[in-house]
Input
Amino acid sequence: MIEEGHGELLSACTADEIREWNRKYKARGLIDKTATAREAVDRFVKDGAYLAIGGFGHVRISMPMIYEIVRQKVKHLRVSGHTAVHDLDVLIAGDCVDAVDVAYSFAFETRGLSKNGRRAVESGRVKCVEWTNGALSWRIKAAAMGLPFLPARNMLGSDTFNFSAAKTMVCPFTGQKLAALPALMPDVSIIHVHYADRYGNCLVRGTTVKDDDLAKASKRVIVTAERIVPDSFFRDAPERTTIPYFCVDAVIEAPWGSHPCNMPYEYYFDNEHLKDYLKAGANEKDLHAYLDRWVYSVKDFEEYLDLVGIKKLYELRRLEELR
Amino acid sequence: MTDYTPIQMMAAVASHQLEDGVIVGVGTGLPMIAGLLAQKTHAPNLIIFFESGCMAPQVPRLPLSVGDSRCVHRAVAATGLAGIMETGQRGMIDYAFLGGAEVDMYGNINSTVLGDHDSPKVRLPGSGGANDFGSLSWRTIIIARHEKDKLPERVNFITTPGYIDGPGSREEAGLPPGTGPYRVITNLALMGFDEDTCRMKLISLHPGVTLEQVIENTGFDLIIPEEIETSTPPTDEDLLRLKEIDPDGIIIGK
Output
């Protein structure tokens, strides 16, 4: 007997839809895709879109894009919460989010729960469908593979399953009961990387988390990069390519682009900034004052970095280098 | 006599559960501390996995996230969520080390919600990698606070399945056979699970804790063995190492 979770499938796709999208809309050619965050949001992040963010919630996340989404007041996003932390929280603060596929969300790990995130869910403003980090990665992997689902052995026997949109299935070879995880093809992904060339080839250092698959699975992929490098950086050593250019739709130069979060090998968390942010989350008034200062009253991420100050940024680099 | 706090006691007892040379998937918070402590004391060859993709790192300072750069420091491989959970799915992860807001008598863990799911009293973070680790690892070690409402007969929401409804339930659900909760460590006691009933069973009381105290603070009928041991408290070395791991008391100071 097939069991099914009764959570809503926030983003559905068939294997043929994946193929057709990639045939029709993904450019094959070597095109200069450099853009600004403002242009990328304008072109690719529409009201009601299903959004996935690369990195690990407060590690290697694309803050220029997240701030720009808030600044442009994009609404009704559905977000993949495969460990969503500061990324999702800022979007919720900006009232951009209606629903979350939750694996880990509304909290900041060792820093504790987020009052802003909790308030959004507990008041019914943000709806939750339950998954796990493994499940969301495999859902993304299924779409990356061009398959409608993947079988797995997690989720079973739990309320996480009951409040998800997964089903059970029987292995046609062995009769083994398995979880069937539907493919997840986000409308748009934003991924912060260490190196990118203007065509969209990317290198991610450290853990990829799921971003290699995410880039293959998503309809549109926006990359922000610490450094823009010539394409010879990849052509001379193709093993460096974490994400090949034809997955990518826009490339944005964004040094310090994960601030106030961690960027492995580059800079550590701005702990003071995050502490202030979480404190501001205690009530809507302080939260809006925070957004006014750091998002609405600056034109772009460069102006934001001016506000942070070079002294602080150097300090975060030393912290990362364990100096 | 060595002076220590309940958190230091929990970290030490938790670390003692891990043998040298095994692979352990470690969740955020106190499990991280316990894994690092084991590595610095009796289990120098302990292989730590963090769900973000880190395999066998040499963690230089306390990470603030299971995905931050300190978790990948001098690792043998940097993969991703799928890389870690697939390694678990093929039976390579020996222990999972998890925390939770509620743990029940079958070792089911809730880290998702208090109250109704759709209009919650308290929204918690959700599974993260806990459900994956708890489903796929051979043995799951759980750290929880010992209070009546944190150890209820039945958790409000099964985020991560323990023995679910008792013997045979995990297998019936389709979970890999031979897996399940192994130890529960609280601020009062160390517990395991009865082989026949799959119910939580007392193993040892922490020094200075009475049986009555444990019974009073447990929300279900805990199985009490005839012989109750006393948990091994942290040694001076344990305390010194804990100080090295978390010098600012970010977790140990809580």
